[in-house]
Each structure stands twice: as structure tokens, then as C-alpha cells.
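user: can you give me the structure for this one chain? C-alpha cells are fine.
assistant: on it. calling the predictor now.
[tool input]
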Amino acid sequence: MPKAKKSTKPSVDVRGIREAEDAVRDLKNWVFVFAKEYDLPEEAVKMLHAKVHEVAERIRVISCR
């Protein structure tokens, strides 16, 4: 009898993805507060938000099919 093929797709925990989304949202809020509190240059804030947005987009495309 042939052996069953193992799935090559990694297992994804939906809870973990939700926690990652929440963490990114918290980070975005923290960057905003930190920038105001420490009067960061506008260019630095834009760069931080762009990098956080990049991470958020990578998380957004993860699916749990």
C-alpha cells in the first residue's frame, strides 16, 4: 500500500496571525505617539510608517486555507 503524501504547506495558526495583526496595529500607534512625544523629524516618521506598513502588507496576504 502506498504511503500518503505529507502536506508541503506549512501549518498556519489563525490565532497567531490575529496576534501579529494586533501587534502591528499597536506598533503603528506607538510610532505615532513616540514621534509626537519626541518630536521626530517628519522624514523619519514617514520611513517608520512605511516599514511598518510593509510588514502589515506581508501579514495581510497570509491565508489560512
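assistant: here you go. Residues 14-60 form one domain. The helical segments are 14-37, 42-60.
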